[in-house]
Recover the amino acids of this structure.
């Protein structure tokens, strides 16, 4: 049973994959004493409450006769953490938590989630993957020492979730290549679904640089802003890098008119900002082949109304390993690790 429920947690975390960077994508589920679902939440953005705090806050309102004060900002990680620690009233003592990743034991801007769980003392904590970051290790030991039952499932699906985080933590860079189809199946142009489009715009509010080809800039004339993003991701917009053999580009193109970000033209692959931070490359298979040695993951957006087809050309399939697939509205998003990925 717990493996099935953990799979649901993993799917929840994939819904916001990369959006919490430089933190890992994590989801948490809280069950009552009868294993009825109280909450399922994911960590949606760095510097906001972790998945455990979000799930526990929702579960608190389901269990407590008095809900949490409405003046607590759901994005304030310190306020939510403190409220749970001070007002739990043993509500969680018969609860079971499922977390895709071992609760952190790292003191940062807030105390670690493992410390909060030791205060709340749920009956058991089920973990999908062990912590990979030495700075945050120790959560399992802390929980066990507090008398909380701990079960570790070691599920590959939960470890797969950590690929972007591990790349960024260990190499200092995570490069995601994104390919989207139009309704005619062509991998040139705009994403077809509204939810899929919003997800891409959310990513632009998290990434450091968005990289496109000169041909795409001149032919598609994209704006490359994040107007469809959730307000949570609209406080900043990534810079844009254009790769073009032609060193001259029309500065009246729409993407140059977006304020709050820099746009740079590069004529050589080796000069692109591909060596630090979280970067998104948008383009077709020719651009992917040019940058293949730098790519850590591939994300494809395919409209589900299209006839079944092979989304990755046969000659390129050996370089990609499927990790996850999810439906957003009318679009299928598939995530692949790349041959160059070595987190």
């Amino acid at each position: 049973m717990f493996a099935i429920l953990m799979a649901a947690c993993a799917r929840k975390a994939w819904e916001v994959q990369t959006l919490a960077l430089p933190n890992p994508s994590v989801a948490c589920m809280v069950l009552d004493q009868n294993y009825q679902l109280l909450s399922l939440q994911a960590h949606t953005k760095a510097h906001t409450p972790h998945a455990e705090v979000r799930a526990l806050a929702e579960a608190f309102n389901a269990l407590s006769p008095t809900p949490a004060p409405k003046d607590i900002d759901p994005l304030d990680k310190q306020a939510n953490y403190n409220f749970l620690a001070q007002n739990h009233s043993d509500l969680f003592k018969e609860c079971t938590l499922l977390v895709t990743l071992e609760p952190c034991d790292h003191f940062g801007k807030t105390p670690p989630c493992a410390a909060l769980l030791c205060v709340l003392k749920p009956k058991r904590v089920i973990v999908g993957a062990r912590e990979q970051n030495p700075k945050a290790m120790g959560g399992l030991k802390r929980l066990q020492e507090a008398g909380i039952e701990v079960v570790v499932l070691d599920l590959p699906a939960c470890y797969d979730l950590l690929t972007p985080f591990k790349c960024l933590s260990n190499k200092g860079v995570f490069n995601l290549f994104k390919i989207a189809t139009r309704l005619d199946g062509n991998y040139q142009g705009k994403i077809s679904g509204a939810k899929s489009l919003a997800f891409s715009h959310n990513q632009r509010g998290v990434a450091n640089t968005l990289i496109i080809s000169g041909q795409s800039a001149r032919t598609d004339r994209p704006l490359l802003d994040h107007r469809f993003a959730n307000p949570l991701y609209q406080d900043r917009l990534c810079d844009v890098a254009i790769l073009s053999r032609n060193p001259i580009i029309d500065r009246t193109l729409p993407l140059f008119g977006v304020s709050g970000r820099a746009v740079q033209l590069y004529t050589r692959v080796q000069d692109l900002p591909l060596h630090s931070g979280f970067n998104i490359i948008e383009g077709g298979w020719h651009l992917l082949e040019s940058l293949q040695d730098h790519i850590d993951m591939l994300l494809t957006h395919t409209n589900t109304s299209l006839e079944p087809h092979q989304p990755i050309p046969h000659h390129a399939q050996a370089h990609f390993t499927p990790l996850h697939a999810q439906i957003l509205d009318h679009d299928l998003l598939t995530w692949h690790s790349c041959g160059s990925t070595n987190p």
